[in-house]
Design goal:
six-stranded antiparallel β-sheet
Length: 509
């Protein structure tokens, strides 16, 4: 038998017990084939033979069928990769995991016969286990159990099938019932695998949001620091308190994201464990599979209803003492340029207010006029210095305010990636910077927006005038050429009708 197994140099009567992952078995390479010759093998005997064959073809390190096995001088065989992972110490001494004998690398002999037999055994095992279905007999009538009662969840023979207690029950041939159960389990396995992918995707989003949270926190802290640079020394204490609050919010946000990540990881682990359980059920005998199916379905019911929950962190802005007084010292008297206004935009006589009209005005199509974008420019141009102005946006849900180059294209659509504009736009309570993928949420509408420009530093900042707080301040850039104020409406639709934008007078403090 040793030769047939393809295991070289194994001339001992019995192999010692192998203990791994709680499994203990004695494997005899030689059997008395005459023992029990006249006895009909039982279901348990057949299963033991199959399990013994699997044990002979299993690596004692990885507990799986041999892969590229080698046999060493002491007679033991292992997967090549598994054995090499058992090297110890700086000299990488190789010892036998079974008998702890020292092994020379020259003693490693590839065992192709054992490899081939392992492949064959792995292929045959499910078929051998499946063939055992025909060996079950009814304890009451002695006939083969060929049917399955779905109400009683038990196997039936021909005589059982005729019994009164099964008269109105739903009875299927055993193979049909097993295939039906297998199909259900396979469907559940597929759903669980999809759920696992959903939770993995959600976990990846949380990881990205966690990174984004750190980046946003850093950016906002830098902006706050820049704002306090405009103030005098007495404001440093307030700045410190502001940064402390941001740190606390950041820690809270990171804790929430970490908790969300941990929860998603736990849910993924539960899904993975359930998938393994379903897959194990698929390999069980039909009776076991059918009996365990209801329990498996009950366990899966809650998991199948779960959806990934993602934490959404946010950072708040705080009022800055004396900020508006400092900004107002740079306020400019801004007016609108009628030559640049889109025909759908109506300007007031004092050129301080702009409204949207559904019917376009009959205006000359000059070079300076926007013909597609609902925009109008300020009449003033800036090539140096610090400048500040405020705009009332009221209850409008969509607007765009900021600055642009005097040379900005006035014809056709204006690309959102254009370097000619530096604006803040809004939709509802979400604010976005043009030329940036960053968006941020505010908890309440902003009725009045302040815009500050420092040409030399390439700096622009947006403020909530009502709360006297910073909305956002992007990184500084280099301005080249004349810069002009920019005012625009969102494209109107059924849910949004543009209202008006009003430039606050210089004296309005």
């Amino acid at each position: 038998m040793t030769e047939n197994l393809g295991i070289q140099d194994r001339q001992y009567p019995a192999r010692p017990k192998k203990k791994s992952r709680g499994r203990t078995s004695i494997i005899y390479p030689e059997r008395n084939i005459t023992e029990g010759r006249n006895q009909k093998p039982t279901n348990m005997d057949t299963r033991n033979l199959i399990e013994n064959l699997k044990a002979d073809l299993t690596c004692s390190i990885c507990l799986a069928y041999f892969t590229d096995p080698v046999t060493v001088k002491c007679g033991h065989s292992f997967c090549t990769e598994c054995l090499l992972q058992c090297r110890e110490g700086a000299n990488e001494t190789l010892t036998c995991p079974e008998c702890r004998g020292v092994i020379k690398y020259s003693d490693l002999v590839p065992n192709k016969n054992l490899q081939n037999l392992s492949i064959t055994g792995k292929t045959l095992r499910p078929h051998l286990l499946q063939s055992m279905v025909g060996l079950t007999t009814c304890n009451q009538h002695g006939g083969k159990e060929k049917f399955f009662c779905e109400e009683d969840q038990r196997l039936l023979c021909d005589s059982c099938l005729l019994a009164p207690e099964h008269k109105n029950h739903h009875v299927l041939p055993l193979e049909t019932a097993a295939n039906k159960c297998k199909d259900k389990l396979q469907d559940i396995c597929t759903i669980l695998q999809k759920k696992e992918e959903e939770f993995k995707t959600a976990l990846d989003k949380v990881r990205r949001r966690k990174t984004r949270c750190k980046e946003d926190t850093y950016t906002l802290k830098q902006s706050v620091t820049s704002e306090y640079g405009k103030m005098h020394q007495f404001l440093w204490d307030e700045e410190y308190q502001y940064l402390q609050r941001l740190d606390e919010e950041s820690r809270d946000n990171l804790i929430k994201l970490e908790e969300s990540k941990a929860k998603l990881s736990q849910q993924i682990q539960k899904l993975q464990r359930m998938i393994l359980e379903v897959e194990e059920n698929l390999n069980k005998m039909p009776l076991e599979m059918l009996q365990d199916m209801m329990g498996t379905l009950k366990k899966n019911e809650e998991l199948l209803l779960q959806e990934p929950e993602l934490a959404s962190p946010c950072l708040t802005s705080c009022p800055i003492t004396g900020l508006r007084q400092v900004l107002m010292s740079f306020q400019r008297d801004i007016t609108l340029d009628p030559q640049s206004a889109n025909p759908h935009l109506i300007l007031s006589e004092d050129l301080k207010k702009v409204q949207y009209a559904s019917v376009p005005q009959d205006l000359p199509d000059n070079e300076e006029r926007f013909d597609y974008v609902l925009a109008v420019l300020g009449a003033q141009t800036f090539t140096s210095g610090k400048h500040y102005w405020e705009v009332e946006v009221g209850d409008k849900t969509e607007w765009e305010l900021g600055i642009c180059k005097d040379s900005v294209s006035r014809k056709g659509k204006l690309s959102s990636s254009s370097e000619d504009v530096r604006t803040l736009c809004t939709s509802g309570n979400c604010f976005f910077l043009v030329n940036s993928q960053n968006g941020f949420q505010l908890r309440q509408p902003i009725p009045k927006v302040g815009i500050f420009l420092d040409y030399e530093k390439g700096h622009i900042a947006f403020y909530d005038v009502t709360d006297i707080s910073l909305i956002y301040s992007p990184s500084n850039i280099v301005f080249e050429g004349p810069i002009r104020p920019y005012f625009s409406f969102g494209i109107p639709n059924e849910e949004n009708t543009p209202g008006s934008l009003i430039i606050c007078p210089r004296s309005n403090q």
